[in-house]
Amino acid sequence: MAQDLFVASKGTLLAVDVGGTDIKSALLSADAAQPAELSVLTRLRRPTPRASDGESTAQGIVATVAQLVAELGAQSPTGGIDAVGVVVPGVVDAGIGVFSANLGWRDFPFATALGAAIDLPVVFGHDVGAGGLAEHRMGAARGARDVVVMPIGTGIAAALIMDGEPRTGGGYAGEIGHVDIGHHEPCGCGRTGCLEAIASTGAIARRYGNRVGRHIAGAAEVLAAAKGGDADAAQVWTDALDGLARGVAVLATLLGPERVVLGGGLAMAGAALTDPLAQRLDGLLTFQRRPQLRIAELGDEAGCLGAGFLALQRWTASLSEVAG
Ligand SMILES: [Zn+2]
Questions:
Q1: pTM exceeds cut of 0.85
Q2: Residue 103 Cα, ligand 1 centroid: separation in angstroms?
Q3: Boundaries of domain holding 23
Q4: What distance in angstroms lies between residue 187's CA and the mean position of ligand 1's atoms?
């Protein structure tokens, strides 16, 4: 019996992270006896299929995942795929893509559609939540019981892990990017004052571009200009840091995390982000537990690895059903 379990403990998983522009996928090697480790065998990227409406876009994504299963399954060293994990952006709950502003769907039944298209165990989840899970298992959130993983990219959201467990609020929790931090600029959500409208990588590039009257490719260019003494860039960067400090202060006050892990494109700034942010946070917090600020360790692979951990949970659960 022990021998049987040993043989069954090696598996191959497929992880898929659906983004606004591309779909990242990875074939992963897993060991049921090592639930905090995954290793990447092969990576594959595909453009995200975009249709005229959100439902057709979602159906195109399901078809792309089925193609990836066929293509990468043929490369599996164990002769097949044991489970598939798929994560998407937006609001996600109980197998449903509730809403994605970027990709346009509302209430699309991903889990059911994926189950019909793929003859394997499939688990469906949220990209930010999955990224948080991956950072918690094998990245900068490792070992923390109460931790917030906050990707700062084209949007800003947070994965909440409290008492060692993810908290999702029916898919609506963690939307720190839409907390009103007290400015008057409009946000894509329809309100003004949102953190995301001033501190996302897109907002930083856009706000600097408006000041200097030309298109700016990304936030990295703004940070470099600020370091070089450009007053407009310095102001935009300061506004972003002030906003992020307020956002993290809200998290510290409401949730009391021991650590906040900063990810996404802006985390590439490293200490240029965490040092001034820590300084501002000191000025804002009084009695609250002061969270450690860390830069995410898994970069833009976090969502894909997180999808892999969802698949791993699914696969190990099916093994214990068999063993039981
Ligand atoms: Zn907003």
A1: yes
A2: 17
A3: 2-127+301-323
A4: 5
